[in-house]
Design brief:
Strand content of chain B: 5-15%
CATH architecture of the domain at 236-328 in chain A: Orthogonal Bundle
Radius of gyration of chain A: 21 Å
Number of helices of chain A: 14
Order of helices and strands of chain A: HHHHEHEHEEEHEEEHEHHHHHH
Structural class of chain B: alpha+beta
Oligomer: heterodimer
Strand content of chain A: 5-15%
Radius of gyration of chain B: 35 Å
Structural class of chain A: alpha/beta
CATH class of the domain at 236-328 in chain A: Mainly Alpha
Largest sheet of chain A: 5 strands, parallel
Number of domains of chain B: 4
Distance between the termini of chain B: 17 Å
Number of strands of chain B: 17
Helix content of chain A: 40-55%
Largest sheet of chain B: 6 strands, antiparallel
CATH superfamily of the domain at 236-328 in chain A: Magnesium chelatase subunit I, C-Terminal domain
Number of strands of chain A: 9
Chain lengths: 328, 662
Amino acid sequence: MIFSLLYLPIADYFRINWIKLLFLGFDMTATITAIIEQINQQLLGKEHQIKQALGCIFANGHLLLEDVPGVGKTTLAHALAISCGLSYQRVQFTSDMLPADLIGVSIFDTSQQQFTFHQGPVFNQVLLADEINRTSPKTQSALLEAMAERQVSVDGKTYPLPDPFFVIATQNPLEHSGTFELPDSQLDRFSMCISLGYPSVEAEKKILQGKQIRGEQLQAIMDKQSLQQFQTRAAAVSVSEPVLDYLLALVQETRVNSLYPHALSPRASQAILAVAKAWAMIEGRDYLLPEDIQAILPGATEHRLRGTNQRTGQSYSEQLLHSINPIG
Amino acid sequence: MNKSWLANQYSIVLMIFIHSFSLLLLWQEAAWWVAIISIGTISWRWLYFKGQVLKVNRWWHFSIVLSCIILLTITGPSHGLLLTMVNLLLVGFALKFIELYQQRDAFILALISILTAGVALVFGSEIKHAIFNLILLIATLCLLINICAPALKWRQQLTLSTKIFSVSLPLTAVLFLLMPQLSPLWQMPSIKQATTGLSDNMSPGDIASLTQSSELAFSVTFDGERPLPQELYWRALVMESFDGRRWSQSPVSKLWQRSLANNTLTEISPTMKSFNYQIIAKPSNQQWLFGLALPLSNDNGVRQSFDGTLFATKPVVTPMQYTVSSVQGLMTLAPINNRSRLRNLALPEQTNLKTQQWVAELRQRHEHPQALINAVLAYFRQQPFYYTLTPKLLGQDSIDDFLFNTREGFCAHYASAFSFVMRSAGIPSRVVAGYQGGEWNDEVGYLNVYQYDAHAWNEVWLDGQGWVRVDPTAQVSPERVTQGLVSTLGAEQDFLSGSVLSLARYQHSPWVNQLRVSLANIEYLWSRWLLGYDKEAQNDLLEYLLGEVNATKIMVLILICLCVIALWLAWFSGFRLQRKTYQQKSDELFNTVVAKLGVKRPTHLPAYSYLQQVAQQRPHIKREIALFSCCFNQIQYQQCAEITRQDWLKLKQAAKELFDKI
């Protein structure tokens, strides 16, 4: 303690942030490292995606996991919810699902002679919406208000959702049979869309050897309070003018250049900034670098720009990344 | 070093334009071989830019320079010092194109171009020269901007250079108006040039066709009353020597001119009527000046000759303004003395015998000189004499041939013959060369006298009357004197046939004439107020502004003007002269580091990632790179604390260590 008191002014003088972090936020970095470590042990070799997903949670955004079946989408969603110590409920979306199945339903209580609202699975801190695109657009839209406003309205009454509230959804790629395309409005409400991809050969070997930890072994590393601390901290990451200009240039490019079929909305730029800040915090910095934006840009824009440039074979987010000079 | 301007087609085109334009400005002064060398170097530069030729190797370089030096030395003596120096400048300008590899070279090119613009003003300071100079200077500014900021579009560069130019105008105006006009520290070597219009000798028999020039000779502004058109005989020089073919100034008056003596016999009684006027003489490279009889001037640099003409103490190489008052109806104040009488009676012996015989007969019939003059004039009038600008060449005895054979010619023929006849008859006579008439401009109120107004007439000495002006040309073609040359020739002869482009040639078209008059007005105002702004005009202005002029007042005035200009500039630039922020500085430093590292940065890569990449490639400088990128990120992106000078110094130190390691 005395040592740290001596060291702080020196660290402050030299502005060596990692030293500051070492003394002030030791437990925080440790927490983050621990979470990443834990999930990484279950989902081998996907550290970058895990960090992105965590960033999304710290930025208070909803997460969409999109990939072919069997690469561990649900596993990641699970692991995230558990590690963050949040109440969660998994809902398997099916084509015959109705909005009431998700939000809840008012039932006439004969004992009290009135309708009482029975909360659906959405009233959890984390809603694991598995295979979200298997359900009809009607049910998908039921999530709109919940995701944006963090509240639901039933029978003219508005019920607030718990805080924090996240939707972690998984979906199969559109080409797979029995899927509905998510409406644009809904897609835009997901801060990030991460695809996991196949594991590397070594990682798969370890999986086959059974070296990963199983779901029931997962522990809650954070609680609600520490998650909120992380969120406020992430929001407080400072953003300098050049970085902001860079972000604006990126967003502007999609709007000006006719190459992009879908432009980025202001909500998108807000999401990018928020997630980038969280990323910077995970990286142990209290200020934003262009690198932070670049790290999360594909995840934050892929589902909004949608598709690949047929001519170059680059995905639009990648192309966007390569078209703007972050310096000057 | 940023060399993108060298690969920039626009900057190459701009350089070529600047060079060709300055060559055109000094076209008359440049030697032909300079133009050839210029074309050579320019084409080489263009091909080099296109990648079709190699660098000029050292030996070629050396031999080209050597041959230029040799050519300059050979042509030097015939060109004179000034033209040699001008050619040296142009050759240097042209040769710069083959050693144009560094930014420094491009700057030198721009500086040479500015110097050329200044030199071009030595040879002409009319409006057109000023406009050409302006174009050249703006193009040069564009080039300078292009070197420093190649990323700007040409339109932006042009706007910026025009802006810079207009911002500098008030300062120029103040300097022009208030800067003390010191006499030059060095004298311009006199320019060897052929003169048009008036010449210091006259041999009418040898001219088959008089080339006319519509160039302005001088402009006159009268104070008060104007003389009648037939009174407008502008005396320039008096020719008293005749060798049988050629009239020229007498050695005595040449001596007088050389001694720069001033005829002080100026006692004018106030009852005599006199005209006061200012003349702006265009450069003629001669000493003679113009004035109506009898011209008197008290200006500095103007002298009066004993034969009633004015001359300048130095050849007129720049427009010269002077004030004259002319006593009407007086040719000279001094009575004729014996020597002068002899000079004005001298004739070459045994020439033009036929004329002499005819004069002897005439003399017998008319005793009185005036009667004799009238008889000769009557002869011109009654015999079929024609006024033409394309006379036949005259034989050995030119006067005989003219009087009795060809009978056609222009003023010089008549004046020459008349003087000869008078001298043969024993009446002192001389030829006066100058200008007759001029074009009134009523809008602004001045008279323009052009080279085609050049004229020659006679003066005879009559006892009791003094020198009397006689114009024999007026007998043959009276309109020549009352209405000017243009109307005399009319449709029969092609006026100004030599110069197709001259506007004066198309005077019959009303709008062309209107245009010509407006241009002349502008030119006049330009000469009067801009070129004519000399020491005295400056003094007048200062006296008008300040009352009594003294050094303190001038200093205060200049300081006030400078302050006002400084404020205006500050306002104009929106106080943009702020210091660069540390972020801008560190950006620049980063660019330097990228250049020094020699690894091209993919445009989408941020500084930190880029440096990490480089560090992976070169592990031996890993530590330095890490330090630099850390400091760089702090300055650029860390906003929670204010960036201090210390941060900047740290970054600089890190960069220095990095450079040392490289």
